[in-house]
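Here's what a typical entry looks like (Large ribosomal subunit protein uL10):
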Amino acid sequence: MSKAIETKKAVVNEIREKIASSQSAVLVDYRGLTVEETTELRKRFREAGVEYKVYKNSLMRFAFKEEGLEEFNQHLKGPNAIAFGIEDPVAPAKISKDFAKDHKNLEIKAGVVDGKVIDLDGVIGLADLPPREVLIAQVLGGLNGPISGFANVLQGNIRNLVYALNAIKEKNEQ
């Protein structure tokens, strides 16, 4: 086998591993971005723990096909880059959306979340999710409400019992 084919196979395996180990991925068309804008985008991704890479579409097609995500391949037209969310599944979508808001040349194409291909609307919806800490607080707040209500009801019954016993005690003292 030639060295070029071995190199391409290694890149396909690298992409497959990133797809498998990532919680999400977002595909963007970076055509029209200046070098400074691309550097800024890469910096934002790096700070959030997101891997941002440019691969050949043909190599990405092989990798996504091998991972059972063939429907993703329809989005692989033109110059593309892909951002892999290793730690935070929302980070690639949120950073891409925020950056595209200020830089019209960045086009979000599609994404993958937990092994499912999502379209542009899905990526935007993912980006609009509140941060993980806020979601956890909302869930805990929702769980805490009924528990607090139940505790207040129980406390009210105990309070009424104390009032009744106190009234009986005062009546007997007279």
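DSSP finds six helices and five strands in the chain.

More examples are in the samples folder.
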